[in-house]
């Protein structure tokens, strides 16, 4: 792969040890002849990543989600260093980052392209989600009734606490907590998982990548809260629909050449059992 010569660092200073890791990684980068710039603010402005080869995010998955939109629109790949809890997106531990960073800067890395969701709640208004789009009643304790259409075909009306529309990458986030399925991150699908549905047969649905989904509140006076990646909240009233599709943009994540997706899943979720010998 192409060596990295211009790096941006996004550092969550509230995470223990993040500043020390950033100091070490920037020293490795400058010693290799790369230029660096830093910020502790996120979400970052779209122009922050201009002329950058990569962005190193040091924090938790929430920190990385704050960089997703700018990185996808600038087509700048992200190196995620975990200082949070599970860290499905920030796959490098502090030790791995320090061990592999010189290799990565030299071009010894792979890139994983992740599908993004496009959420539109008004003409010309589009937002990107790496993990999920949540739709629920704006008053958090209220049951909501939401009608779902797929390519203008009526699916059903859900009476529930809300609907989670997840990308494959986000299948390990809120979707998993709500009982939804794990999806391989390279699959380009949308997973719908209802939250506490009143009809017990309502279960997750996996839609193909080119589906056009539309959600309409059954009662026009209902006000909805649309949460994009748990970071950007949109209030919708007067029965306006929410449109969700797979975006034509992708997020690119940098991994070391030794990265193994299922090894990460086993470690993060605490799966037990070993491989069969000889396989």
TrEMBL record:
It catalyses: NAD(+) + ATP = ADP + NADP(+) + H(+). Its EC number is 2.7.1.23. Its main location: cytoplasm. InterPro entries: ATP-NAD_kinase_N (IPR017438), ATP-NAD_kinase_PpnK-typ_C (IPR017437), NAD/diacylglycerol_kinase_sf (IPR016064), NADK (IPR002504). This is NAD kinase. Involved in the regulation of the intracellular balance of NAD and NADP, and is a key enzyme in the biosynthesis of NADP. Catalyzes specifically the phosphorylation on 2'-hydroxyl of the adenosine moiety of NAD to yield NADP. The gene is nadK. Its cofactor is a divalent metal cation. Keywords: ATP-binding, Cytoplasm, Kinase, NAD, NADP, Nucleotide-binding, Transferase. Belongs to the NAD kinase family.
